[in-house]
Amino acid sequence: MTVGDRLRTARRLGWIDPGRVAATATALARWGPTLASACAAAATRYPHRVAVVDHRASLTYAELDRRSTELANGFASLDLGDQEHLGVLCANNADFVEVSVAAAKAGLPVVYLNTGFGAPQLGEVLAREGVTALVADVDLLEVVDASAFRGKVLAADGAPPHRGHRSLADLRLLRASRRLRPTLPVAPVLLTSGTTGVPKGARRSARAVDPSAALALLEMIPYASGDITVIPTPLFHAWGLTQLSIAIGTASTSILVRRFDPAATLSAVHEHRATVLALVPVMIRRLLASEHLAATDTAALRIVASSGSALAAGAALEWMNRVGDTLYNLYGSTEVGQATIATPADLRAAPGTAGRVVPGISVEIVDSNGDAVAAGEQGRIMVGGRGQFSGYTGGGTKEMLRGRMATGDVGYFDRDQRLFVTGRADDMIVSGAENVYPQEVEDLLLTIDGVDDCAVAGVPDEEFGQRLTAWIVAAPNARLDPEEIRSLVARDLARHKVPRDIAFVDTLPRTNTGKLRRGALTDRS
Fold first, then answer.
1. Which pLDDT value is given to residue 179?
2. In terms of Cα–Cα distance, which of 180, 154, 157, 225 is closest to 68?
3. What's the helix, strand, coil split of the chain in %, to 5?
4. Most buried of the four, 12, 87, 143, 449, by CB within 10 Å?
5. CATH no. of 434-522
6. Fold (CATH) for 211-386+400-425
7. pTM to 2 decimal places
């Protein structure tokens, strides 16, 4: 990226507006590269611009800045120690945003919690992460009470608390004895998806940001100051939080969809004339299947940003053919950060690709001995860059090799240096001495008319060690024949990749970011 490119990108993002530069410099000096500094800078330059819209109301940047400062003052009354954390158990709403900005102003370490947790899992994570104070939506307080959590509980979500819990409104009424002082930036703890067990806490340095790589990402995707961003992806996961951070960092408006629903999401896009829509691949498939898509005004959409799991080639092409060349597919993880981006041009030329490496990041494909492989050869994906996490809160980290971190995925580069992710290393099925990665079979199954969703996994087999089983969710009114499905797979893939068993199910076990829980699949067999 040339100096001219960087200047054009910074101008599009609103970062070299004279009034914004001074406000940003002042905020960065006080709070470092956090949501607090981004919010304060936006409030100084664009006080009346709407920052957040949720299911209840909206907040301007001036209101968000003022309310978060009041809340940060109130957080002082919690008396959290150095090793204690503030938990946030909120769906996509303004309270989540306000608490996040306030915690950054107060220098409090935050743990973002999955709103889908049951009481036992929530209690286990709260204890492991050292959470001693918890902000929770009112409709989740019963789960908190059943989790055996004994710390301070603050009710959010704009409704009266119960069972003696304090509320965020109570804390906002407190007046600090002195003005908030500059604090050292504290990075939040994000939880992994937990597809194979209890989610792990991933910690990284608040300053683990490579400005060059971050700017390169924003140069490859045309975000702009004043965007209208619809976010139905959970804010407590890295992808949703990234989109919120970009929106606040560019003084844009975030339209928060409380929980993903195709009709509600498309309604938000239509009503607000959204310019950015943040999704995960399973959401794209559900929007494509929605009867509301055809009637939705998507003319203002410039960016549909997708990440979190593999994006099937067929879904990418169908979206662009029906909605337009707005789709950007990003690959990365909570542990390694963003690694590659596929632009609409990449997805047209090579559907299914995860894209090209973000400048400032390095990606290498290695074999079982750790040696780099040639283009076209499959191997383990290793990612290098300053966005790497610093380890799991419960101990341990990812494998490192020559400064690059293992993602746990396998894939290959094509001759044009586009990355293809073919599956998870630990999902590999060995059937009759042949190696099979389920994702390849799933991608093909999704191209069959009438297949709405699918999953492939290995189940024990006395003769072959494992045999392939496919679980298929049929589209409404579809009539699918197992033998015909097997014939269609055999036409394009090797014989050992054809599922021996096919089961039709109503739903598949997925996390709330759309990732498949394969262990739960094999429990059904």
1. 58
2. 180
3. 35, 25, 40
4. 87
5. 3.30.300.30
6. Rossmann fold (3.40.50)
7. 0.88
